[in-house]
Amino acid sequence: MDKARLYENGDVGPVVFAHQIDDEPWWRRQKTPLICAFCMTPVVSQRTTVGRAPRGALFRLAKDQTHGEICPLNPTEVLQKIAHGSQGVAVIEGDELHLVLPGDLGQIGTPTSVTETGPAAPGDRFGVNISTVRPLLPPLINSAVVIARFLQRYDYDADVVAQFKVRRPGETRAVGWGEFCHGPGPGDQARLYARLTGGRKPGHPVAVYGRITAVEKDRRNRKVLRLADGPGFTVRIRSDHNTLLEPLKAGVFVLAVGHWKVWTPPRGRPELQMYAEEHWQLAHWTYDDASGRSGPPACPPPLSLAQRTLRQARKTAAAPKPAPRSVPSSSPKPHPSGPSTSVASPPVTLPPLPPAAPPPAVPEQPTLPPGPDTAPVVPAPPAHPPLSPRPPASPQRPADPPRRRTRRGWWPFGRRH
Hints:
The protein has helices at 26-29, 75-84, 139-153, 158-161, 186-197, 242-245, 305-318; strands at 3-8, 11-17, 34-36, 42-46, 58-61, 90-93, 96-100, 114-116, 129-131, 164-167, 174-176, 181-182, 206-217, 223-227, 234-238, 253-258, 261-263, 271-275, 282-285, 287-288, 293-294. By secondary structure, the protein is α+β, with helices and mostly antiparallel strands. The longest helix is centred in the middle third of the chain and has 15 residues, at 139-153. The termini are far apart. The relative contact order is 0.07.
């Protein structure tokens, strides 16, 4: 633990910190009793150790002592309550709660009820109540809101934060809570800015948690949420749908989950920004620093059917169009202009006509000697006149050359007689 409280004569005293131990403060020299910062369990201070296992100064439990049941450093009950309402995205491993992250924003899941971490209800020692808040949140966002509000109640104490870890997609080893949620300090957001600009970019959705400092307008008169500025950059939340940002006001706390990026405008400071596309990406609530009480969490109303249709149309218009595929043409392809290399077909030779059939033979009549009563017999003509055979085709006579006019045949004053 990095802090504790003084306990003298039955009275709880001020908070002391571990970085003071090595300087031998008065409460250490006088061996003033110490108790946990969140419960009445006795603790002791320990100086920085060197050697094979160096360790910084800290507070640890006294011998045979355990944290009280209402202490947030006793994770048994509070972690079980959060895991019970997570629908499997938050699992308990020993004294830690592991939140399993998806690889893509679309894999977060369906909405569920919200685990409330506001003021403690009667019989609830931790202020972790299960209630239904409209509209519903997906299990991952629900669990992240519960953890963020629980840590906010205990001022993001390092020992309390150490109980919550996350598992990146495809990995079984858990990493710190800060690998997923960046906030509330500007240094946490600067760490995300460094990862996006030059380090190892996260392969999963990340969250930025903080207080909204101002509500601005862009050039198209759309609402823009501005969080606390980081060193050398600004933090803004934007959206193409004003209904997602309308309920959020300056002064409220927001947990924005999505794909964060760095945008450098032509003029001005770089911007760490996120574009909200769904209502469950923006969970918000109020918190009173003086009393430590917070209002119930909420999120904007879901997008209407018209808004979703418009968003899909914009995505379709912005998507790159595939190259047109070549379709074979039905028209004949033009012949190449060069000399043809095809073999010319041989000329067709018609067969000669058969010769004409000879005329039919007519039998000769016997010649009788003329008598007084007989007339001379005249032979009958044939039934068909004989056909003359077709003369052979004579070669075409070439045309005579044009007759050349001589000077003798021409006279300028008419024809010569």
